[in-house]
Write a structure and sequence with these properties.
The chain is an alpha+beta fold. It is 35% helix and 16% strand. Strands 4, 5, 6, 7 and 8 form a 5-stranded antiparallel sheet that branches. The protein has a 3-stranded antiparallel sheet with strand order 2-1-3.
């Protein structure tokens, strides 16, 4: 007799009447493999079942006592039966998302914890493109006790690049203190932390794309502001506070309407 911790391979045999209405449910009878006319299933065969015949096969939850996190993604393949609970196919475990199936002949979950779901292929492509194995986690992602401290040589290199940018493009020194620039750089650093060494062209877009996106955002803001002002205008409940001034350089006359409501920009031209 096998140990309680060992799940025996499954075998199938043909039973029932193929012409009966319930033939799909009774076509396969599960039994422990034994000498005789039985056919052992492979993990590949079991894997294809819920993919090709989702109405006949499913993946059920592991309702036993388990501590491993992998069971949030894995379950047991089973045959769907009418008017009764699905019948588990012993000896296998399947991913609930991509239905990848492994032989499960012991209680070891090592292979399950290493599983990369096929729904994460896009993430894996990014990791592989940047020389990072998708099956290995970055050690820095497990130990985030404090922020990293740059070496003096790295700090100096950043200073050199900042100075070169400001001088070559004739930018004001204060531009390096701009809050928008710092938010942008911080987001780029966070993306690099998640995916590794990412090419800058994958993150930053060109002038034409930026201009088009600004036009799109401006139109969205105009629509939102118009909708918020529509009701007060219809009820004669809007007060405008005009502010007229002249540009000291170009001597252009300008007008401004200020609205201090939350969610609206301070200046609506």
């Amino acid at each position: 007799m096998s140990s309680p911790e060992i799940l025996s391979p499954i075998s199938i045999s043909r039973v029932g009447n193929a012409n009966s209405p319930d033939s799909n449910a009774s076509l396969v009878k599960l039994s422990i493999s034994s000498p005789g006319n039985s056919v052992k299933l492979t993990s590949t065969q079991v894997q294809s079942m819920p993919r090709t015949k989702p109405d006949q096969y499913t993946v059920i939850e592991n309702t036993g006592k388990h501590k491993s996190d992998c069971w949030s993604s894995f379950g047991f393949p089973a045959i769907v039966k009418k008017n009764t609970d699905p019948q588990q196919i012993d000896g296998f475990v399947s991913c609930k998302k991509c239905f990848t199936t492994y032989s499960f002949l012991s209680n070891s979950t090592r292979m399950l914890n290493q599983h990369n779901c096929e729904s994460s292929k896009e993430r894996n492509k990014i990791l592989e493109a940047n020389g990072t194995s998708p099956t290995q986690g970055r050690l820095t992602s497990f130990f985030r006790t404090k922020q990293a401290c740059l070496k003096e040589s790295e700090i100096m290199k950043i200073k050199d690049l900042q100075a070169e940018w400001v001088c070559q493009n004739i930018r004001p020194f204060s531009i390096v203190e701009d809050n928008g620039l710092r938010r942008l750089i911080q987001e780029c650093i966070s993306i690099g932390d998640r995916y590794g060494n990412v090419n800058v062209d994958q993150v930053l877009r060109g002038a034409d794309v930026t201009a088009a996106h600004i036009s799109k955002l401006a139109e969205e803001h105009r629509t939102r502001i118009s909708e918020e002002l529509l009701e007060p205008l219809q009820n004669d409940a809007v007060t405008f506070c005009p502010d007229m001034w002249s540009d000291p350089v170009h001597q252009d006359d300008s007008g401004e309407i200020t609205d201090d409501n939350d969610g609206l920009p301070d200046n609506v031209y």
